[in-house]
Amino acid sequence: MNLKTNSKILATLLILLTLLGPMMGIVTVQAAWTDPAAWYRTVPGVLAADYYKLYPFKTDKSLKLGFSQFGELINSIENVGLEYRYVDPFAPEAGSGIPAGIPKKDWINGWLINISYTTIDGDARNVWACALHADLQDYEGPWLRVDTTPDKGEDPRDQGYEIGNYAGGLKYGGRKTNGTAVTEPYIVLYEGPRRFVALLDTTIYDHRVHGSDDTTLDIPLVRLLLTIIFNKDKKEVYILKDVKSITPKLTVQGKMYVQFSNRGEVDLGTTAGGFPSYAHFYTAGKSQGQPTPYDEDFVDTVKTVDPASPTCLGRSKWGPEPKATGTYDVAQVINFATDVKNVFFAAFWPSLSNYEIFGGAYWWRSLTAADLNRVDMPTEPHPTPFYIGEWDFELTDILGTETHFRGVTEYGVTDLWDGADVGTAYDGGNKIDSEVKYQLNETFTPWDLTQADPFNMLYRREVEFFSGDGTTKNFVLDYTPIGSYVDATPIWDKYCTFAERVLVGGVLQVPARAIPPHTATTYKYEIHPETSSINFTTAPPVGTKNIKVLYSRSCPDQYEWIIVGRDSAAVDSAGAAMVSQIYYSESGPMIQSGLDMQDTIWGPHVPFVMAQLRPGTATITKTTTTPTATTTVTLPYRPDYRNAVFKSSSGKTALKDDWCTTYAVSSASIESIGSPWANLLTEYWNEFTDAYLDVGVGEDGSVVGQFSGKIVSLSCWDKLNINRLHGSGYAVIATYKDLNGTIGLVVWGWTGDDTYFACRWLWAGGYNTLGTLHRGVTAIVLKISYTTCPYSASIVEKLGTITEYDPHPDP
């Protein structure tokens, strides 16, 4: 009662001050923010400088990511959002310039949360917060509190007081709440040559006293943790969005109803060509949700609200999600202008409760079931599509069982290939672009451990070279390639197919069956399985072995390579020996063993799979003692196999194209035994797998990650308990398929012991377990017990790209 009385008194004083302000010399001014540069970060992509010449789409440009510590995908200092080629849909256009017709006060991008609950003493409360970069009046700035009496509820259009500085008066800005919001500085969890991970952390409180900046009576409600994951050779970034209840016990009657949404204007175009865009939202609510293995087994207890629930009150259009058959939703925006031809996409998992593709009029509030929930814009083309993707769910206080919700968003920009939208001159129906689908599939339907089980590997990769003579068009292959290529199966540019790759003079060629409008190449071709041949429409030019054909043929139980580190201990080789036994098949050739780097002293002719990118830059000295002599030898050191010194943002490694021009390496299937410290190939895969080793520091001493020397379970829900970041006694088995189509299956432990017994676990039947895992599990972490003999291992983590199987939230 005193709280409410004090609130009324303070509010009255505030109103009087506002009315009397001009007479007393008090002026309410609009903000003129100068945000600290430390609030923002830009992360350049590396695709254009990488080694993925077998990727079926363009690789000449990289995506550049900008973000703020508040969670907007805009670096407002450098004017970078999601920049690709000529466009930047969040900070238009590409480059640091600002289009005259799209001022920064209109750059709306970020999130909004709306929390409704009843206190234990019966007080109905509504607390909201949003980080949207702008509010159509101003942009940037610190957290503002919209402090009105009576509290009129969710409305970020209003001015607010800077939290901690009410004396500064009412201001507009991009980050607002009617409660209290506290954002911590962002933390870079990992920054390697190809992976960037950052954690953003905002806590939201119910501010109970109107007209006062005193926060001593604030009630903590939720903690919002955003994990930005940017694989820098991709054209997308995805964000794990964890909403965690921190509400004290005996605070809430029943549950808190939470509406959490991602929203933003999409300005996909250039000043010269304009921003004529076509958009469509593929949602489960309209029976167009896209399939994913990440179903209800990959969530804790919190799903989105069922619209039929009596607590929904008409706020949710669709749910509950995820269901037994998992889906995700995709908003796609296309600009067909000749100077652009790009596609923007935003994907949401689980499928959304409410959605909108023309949501500019709703930029400031949550959606309801009564809203239009449009999947198409009313008129097209239109310069300003505005997506809103909202999840509605309920949370208990910290003593309850429903304390954690996870949503995932993925944002990207690609070149336009075959994406289509109803009503355009290019009308082919609504169709997700082939490159967009490729990028989405890598995240939402990834190559997983079930597929990587050797007993599910039904093909072998072959490589053949031919010499052009300027006349010959037809070349006979040694084996019959898989698939009915005449019928466009397997689809050449689809993720996780094993279609051929053909290069002439080192340039990737496009097959005649490829879906238009793939960039034309001079030497189009057709594959003919019935004659085991390849036929070019134009004869390749004269050149010795200037034609390279990589293709797949039927061959069960097959990995082509098993690799150990040149500088590893013998224990890794002992583990590899057990793993190799699994692959024996009388119907196919044996797996081939090799090294990561070349052993120029003891095994100069032994196969190795990593490309030496900087020959002769450094060496490592080894002393070998024999019964007759002590010999000192030098070998190329690891820096020779990186394109730069390994530090926090550079030092990529790469796979060789082939070995002896006879055995495929890149695009083959390869097992790697031993940790990233012991095996350079494992270090390569470590930049992509969903359980990875934080290698600590680079060769120049720069910090690479926050959990030096720990095994990091990237998609684990338990982000606040550092004890779950494993060390000795743990091992990782993980898989990944890179942009060249190379499949990696890595087995490594913290110690040599751990690696050996992870291999033994596989040998003793673990591969049967891999084959029965839920689809979508891309990495497992084993706990190895050495207390009894024989030693035992058990799975303690089953990780996917965006979540984990049977999650365990923070304690």
Walkthrough of the structure:
This protein is mainly beta and about 800 residues long. It folds into 3 domains: about 450 residues, no CATH class; about 90 residues, Immunoglobulin-like (Sandwich), CATH 2.60.40; about 240 residues, no CATH class. Helices cover about 10% and strands about 30% of the residues. The strands form 9 sheets. Strands 10, 11, 12, 13, 14, 16, 17, 18, 19 and 22 form a 10-stranded antiparallel beta sheet that branches. A 9-stranded mixed beta sheet has the order 8-7-6-9-5-4-15-21-20, with no helix packed on it. It has a 7-stranded mixed beta sheet with strand order 31-30-36-40-39-41-42, sandwiched between helices. Strand 32 and strand 33 form a beta hairpin. Helix 4 packs parallel to helix 6. The radius of gyration is 28 Å and the shape is globular. The N terminus is likely disordered.
- Rounded mean pLDDT score: 89
The amount of beta strand, in percent, is: 25-35%
Structural class: mainly beta
What form results from the Cα inertia axes? globular
The quaternary state of the protein chains shown equals single chain
| Total number of helices | 6
Tell me roughly what share of residues is in helical segments.
under 10%
CA radius of gyration: 28 Å
N/C terminus separation: 34 Å
Q: Please summarize the sheet with the most strands.
A: 10 strands, antiparallel
**Got a strand count?**
42
Low-confidence stretches: 1-31
Count of discrete domains: 3
Summarize the structure.
With 811 residues, this protein is mostly beta strands.
